[in-house]
Predict the structure.
Amino acid sequence: MAAGPPTQRGGPPAASAWLRALRSMARACAAAASILAVAFGLWFTTSLLRATSDESSLGAGELVLAGFVVLGIPVLVALWRTPRRPAAGLSALAYLPFVWNALMVFVVLRLAPATAAFALAEHGAYLAATRYGDTAPATRVLSAVGQRIAATARRPVNGKDDAQPPERTDRDALVVPFRPGGSSILVDVDVAGPAGRRSGRYVFDTGASYTTITTEAARAIGLDVPDDAPLLEFHTAAGKVTSPVVFLPELRIGDMRIDKLAVSVCDECASGEADGLLGLNVVRRFLIQTDYVRDRMLLLPRTADASGEDRAYDVQAMSRLELVGPPDVWLGTVHWVVRVRNLAPIPVEDVVPAVRFVDGPTLLGRPIPRIEPGASATTLVKGKVGASDASFVLELARARW
């Protein structure tokens, strides 16, 4: 029997060469993308570590941790997947670093956008600034890139703010009886100052920005009004009133004690037998249920760690914020120098000023570790601002006594 023609195996040689070339190009592109992803991941991770560190610089251990997270984990995954095939492991390393770092950045930006935005905006230029200084081109470029990504991370999803989880509490509700006083609710409050304690009735006012106290009550507990005391403006039944702000060491409502409050000495703000009114800096600490049938309120204290509680609302009332000189513009990023003066009789810590644009972003400054009573400190606020962002307000984004 005659043999048939030989069977041809495989595709045409030209097609095989094209496939090999395409695979090589794909591996090269994946490797290049992985190199860029590793560089970006190191920058992103060190910014996060710097933002959460209490030290002035990152230590060797933190830098090693950043390297392990960014590159060590993909290498371990490649070795685990191909323990006996070194060539396959090298091929996996061409794309695994890119996939891992892209996934890591995406998850962080989705789960903690505010933290990531703060880290990139405030510490994105940390590595370059440490090596080359604050004015180096590399520092300014990384700062501008960090600001741009931070602005994107802060944008609400689908035009809506991220949903906040229901607030949880870990304390029992306080049952506080009140006395109806016309259209007002009067609550028994105990205040303490340098000269002692005093009990009195205060109007529970959810519309007042700050708690107030009468001149008589302030004198009774030894609260002095300094000549340079900051001023607050209140709208009363008699019209607009400007009154000084003083530091109140302690206030009690039932069994609930609140330390270190900014209160305004204002006789016109409370009427009749009241010693003052409880404003937002007290009211906001509670979830409130009012029972008008039994003349009582249920106050459920909000969960808070008193040792690290953010007290920016109170601290701002006893601070003076101002810009130092005109803003500086570099690579499309505007830099402001903000001075914060502490008018309280005790130090303030972890002070973060902010420039809040009325129809634009809120730019956070570098944290000021501590400001002594009567002292001032300056910090840098920087970020991207559009041409239409003209009106802004200086405020404190974070601070504690």
In short: The longest helix spans residues 13-52. Confidence is low (pLDDT under 50) at residues 156-170.
